[in-house]
Amino acid sequence: MKKILTLLLCAGILTGCQDDGKKFLKIGVGAPGSGYEAYVAQLNDKLDKNQSFIRLKPVYTKNSGASVRLLNHSLLDLSLVEVTALDHALKIEPEESTAVSIGRFSNQKYNVLNDGDEIKENFATVADVYDKTLHIVISGDSSVDEFSDIYNSNLVIGSDDSYSKIICEQILRTNSIKNDITSNTAFTTVEDALERLKDKKADIAFIFDRVPSEKLKEFSTENKVKLLSVPQAKLQELIAGDCCYSQRKISDDTYPDIGVNTQTLDMEVLMLASIYLDDDTVKELLENGIMGNKIENTNEYKKQLLHAGKSLHNIGFHDGAYEFFKENGVDVKQTTVVESIIKMNLIAGQD
Questions:
Q1: Which of 47, 281, 300, 302 is most exposed by smallest CB count within 10 Å?
Q2: Which pLDDT tens digit goes with each residue over 10-23?
Q3: What is the pTM (predicted TM-score) of this model?
Q4: How many CB atoms neighbour CB 98 within 10 A?
Q5: How far is the C-alpha of 70 from the C-alpha of 29, rounded, in Å?
Q6: Cβ–Cβ under 8 Å, residues 201 and 154
Q7: Residue 74 burial (C-beta neighbours within 10 Å; 0-12, 13-18, 19+)
Q8: Reduced to 3 states, what is the DSSP secondary structure of residue 104?
Q9: pLDDT confidence of 77, banded at 50, 70, 90?
Q10: Angle made by CA atoms 111, 83, 24, in degrees to the nearest 5
């Protein structure tokens, strides 16, 4: 049965809570062991070192899309998501999402089902926290020399987020390669994708990881591999057709055992916050967490600020983030909040 929640009720179920003077915020991190979970651990270390009142409590979800849906229904305070999820997570087709809250409190399960109506976005951007880069990896003895040669190859996608499949589909479609991304492609972790390449169970691996990828660097010291570039013309076509990607050059000294310059794509990983999370908390999270490194080099700090505020997507910035970036001389787009009800169908939940 559909439930209509008012803004008052929504404010009541927001999950941040106080304990021993600390404010604990629930943040969606995808599957256990993901890069998002590792990033949150590093962020908590910085918050602790900088004596912040905020601590982040990881919540496992299926993927970025599930994190967006749970955040939109105020069952999370924050989420780390691949930018590709923003155009797909709130489609009107009903889709169930499960979250498992872990750690400090008790384990709780939440199921959320989109209710079939178009849903208002009740979240905003905090920062672009880092970029994932596509690495197109093939065995060193492969007969594949360029991207067009991968036609009908056995593909494997290595990523900690299943929404990475979307960019693979777009790349293959843009380059007129007819691989069926759903039935002819395995999706797994970065480590397993590289092992499949090594064991000849896959001809090519699409690896999504930060640069440099420590997993790829370690793998390439023991196994001969090559990196392929996305053709320049097709790369520009792809970027022009989707505002969420940017071009990336991987220099030949990034992976010394591979040693080749590569043109490829970057994809943003965003931290999103509920629009009902107070501005001071978001500003504190940015000041002593995301931007909490004590950097004496003003130019380097400015560079990091510009990266954090560069979100290419049209989701505006949370009011607290907007104020933080404005105070630091960085122009970002502010979110416009429209007072309205939230439509949702909460199947099960407790806290």
A1: 300
A2: 333 455 666 678 99
A3: 0.87
A4: 15
A5: 12
A6: yes
A7: buried
A8: coil
A9: very high
A10: 55
